[in-house]
Amino acid sequence: MLHLLMVAMSDSAGQDPIAAALARIDALSGYRLTLRSQGSGGEEVIRYSYQRPGNVRMDLEAPYRGAVLIYRPDTGYVKLWPFGSPGKRRGISLRPTNRMVRSSRGHRVDQSDIGTLLRNVQQLQRHGVTRELGASELDGKAVQHIVVEAEPGRSIHEVARYDLWLDDETLFPSRVISYGRRGERLESVRLEGVSLEPSFAPDDFDP
């Protein structure tokens, strides 16, 4: 897997930054991070784990501290434990479209991974412009600030502009802010404590 990541890093040289970031992520077998989201519904804090080919685990810190969600593409369902302790209590099986397991912005668990986010950004790129605003610093780390903005009247899932800060070394997003057609901020997301290729326990994604 390390070899695949190094190949992706080599192939990404000189590419569009979003395509380069997506190539890096597509070379990973998994990652773990803490997601902090600010939007109209307030703050959401989630310990997030992703394992290819699409296993997702969310351990909620806020607003529903202790709740756990696990999605596996082989079942097509989201298992919800409102009070935590997967394996000790029987979870509730819900479809990914169910409002109980969607975020305040309507994001689905099965479409929550970073690869899906960057593919949405690419859709916006096809009907807009990409600006590289250069190097900056975020939480003491070197990052690249990228803006992708749609043509007037265009949007993807209500988003007409993305501001992304990509880690200078890994190209993994550190922060993403989305804006609507009128320039209003829709959501601000910080991705903290990112661990690439972590070791998952056998039952981390066991529904």
UniProtKB/TrEMBL annotation:
This is DUF1571 domain-containing protein. It comes from the Bacteria.
